[in-house]
Amino acid sequence: MNEKDIARYLEIKAQILQLQEELDRIKPELVVFVRESGGQMKYGDFIFRSHVSRIWSFSEEIQLLQETLRHKKKEEIITGVARLEKETPYVLVTHKKKPWQ
Predict the structure, then answer these.
(1) Between the CA of residue 35 and those of 27, 55, 72, what are the distances in Å?
(2) What string of DSSP letters covers 34-49?
(3) Which alpha helices (DSSP H) does 1-101 contain, by range?
(4) Which one-letter DSSP state was computed for residue 76?
(5) What is the mean pLDDT of each run of 10 residues along the chain (101 residues)?
(6) Are 52 and 35 in contact (CB under 8 A)?
(7) Which of 76, 92, 93, 94 shows the shortest CA–CA distance to 84?
């Protein structure tokens, strides 16, 4: 790893963020187009299907159960009862001026 590699990493990261912004602009139009095409369409070797993602709001009882479960999980981690299944190393890159935005 050298400075050239780091600079290239940052260039690629900036390109990915620009492409993601472009995808985010196009995606709503694509969703409408596929839905208006009967919920499915073909393009070359690709098949586009319309789906819906839902977010649910649960009762206070369920929220309390979830909070209890979060606390119990944390407790098992601290006491060593929980077993680590996977650990993924990564690098967090930040810049106070946020050059990719």
Answers:
(1) 12, 20, 43
(2) HHHTTSEEEETTEEEE
(3) 3-36, 60-79
(4) H
(5) 94 95 97 96 94 96 98 98 96 73 53
(6) no
(7) 76
Phi first, then psi, for residue 8 (nearest 5°) are: -65, -40
Distance CA 92, CA 70 (A): 25
Q: Is the separation of the CB atoms in 39 and 49 below 8 Å?
A: yes
Q: Residue 17: how many CB atoms within 10 A of its CB?
A: 14
| CA-based R_g, the chain, Å | 22
Torsion of CA 7, 10, 12, 13, to 10 degrees: 170
Tokens linked to 74: 């944390």
Identify the sign of the CA torsion 59, 63, 64, 68.
positive
Give the pTM.
0.66
Which token pair is 39?
């919920």
